[in-house]
Design a protein that fits this description.
This protein is an alpha+beta fold. It has helices at about 1-25, 30-50, 50-65, 85, 110-120, 125-135, 195-215, 260-270; strands spanning about 140, 160-165, 170-180, 180-195, 220-225, 225-230, 235-245, 250-255. It folds into 2 domains: about 1-65; about 85-270, no CATH class. The longest helix is centred in the N-terminal third of the chain and has 25 residues, at about 1-25.
Length: about 270
């Protein structure tokens, strides 16, 4: 009987430690409370060599589950951050003026701010205003060779502006394409060494969550070995893409003017 108590107590202690570890990463109060209850119950049962602490521990676990504090192992728990939780702002602020989003007095930006910025460029501002401010900012203008030839598939544009920046340990390029005085496409690319896998994964998750909050779920696709999520609203198209090229992992987010894109697509379809 003592051996059975030790085995069950050990399992309960491991379950408690697992919940405490989950609480550390997820900041969920339910996991913290469940971890404390299971660990204390298991340790008590080992010290007293009694079965009743095990019963108390499992009963408390079920009570927490009924209260909605302890996630059930029998169902998938999906805790997607809302834009308020992720950014600490209201959803309406996603459409703020772009120059109010990025602090262009420095050359380092957060992924969430960059993703908001590229969408906000198609709101209450002009292309000339944004580009003039960026040219006077701390960002460094830089050439962008486009080795994959992706820009050749775009509608015709008059100007292409690229600026180098940083996001943590990743290097980035901000791209702004202008046609007839309006933005055709605005986006950014972040380059991560493979050793920064966790930082790359976190950046992809943040960019995807901000885009989902703005556009909805979107549609998955792929091209040239890159994974994409496509989004659209009445005014813009957007895609979030991530891929690996040699020793570098890349995150790309771009937003384009939907009216210009639709006209270009329709004209190309008529020519074929």
């Amino acid at each position: 009987m003592a051996i059975v108590i030790y085995i069950l107590s050990g399992c309960l202690v491991l379950l408690g430690l697992g919940n405490l570890l989950a609480a550390w990463y997820s900041k969920r109060v339910g996991c913290l409370v469940a971890g404390i209850c299971f660990t204390v119950a298991g340790v008590t049962a080992i010290l007293l060599v009694a079965w009743w602490p095990l019963l108390v521990g499992f009963v408390l676990g079920w009570i927490l589950r009924l209260m909605g504090l302890d996630p059930s192992w029998g169902r998938r728990v999906s805790h997607e951050l809302t834009v308020e939780e992720l950014l600490g702002v209201s959803k309406a602020e996603l459409d703020a003026r772009p120059l109010e989003i990025l602090d262009i007095t420095c050359d380092e930006f957060a992924v969430a701010d960059l993703t908001k910025f590229v969408r906000a460029c198609f709101g209450n501002t002009t292309a000339a205003e944004v580009i003039d401010a960026l040219n006077r900012s701390a960002l460094t203008p830089t050439p962008h060779p486009d080795p994959l030839g992706l820009d050749q598939r775009l509608p015709p544009f008059d100007q292409a502006h690229h600026f180098a920046f940083r996001s943590g340990k990743a290097k980035g390029i901000l791209q702004l394409l202008v046609t007839e005085g309006c933005f055709l496409q605005v986006g950014y690319q972040l380059l991560f060494p493979r050793r920064l896998f966790s930082g790359f994964r976190k950046a992809c998750k943040t960019a995807m969550q901000v885009a989902v909050e703005r556009y909805g779920r979107g549609m998955d696709s792929s091209t040239l070995g890159a994974k994409l999520r496509l989004f659209a609203d009445d005014a813009t198209h957007c895609y979030v893409s991530f891929y690996t090229r040699g020793p570098v992992k890349s995150l790309v987010v771009r937003v384009g003017d939907r009216e210009i894109w639709d006209k270009f697509t329709a004209s190309r379809g008529q020519n074929t």
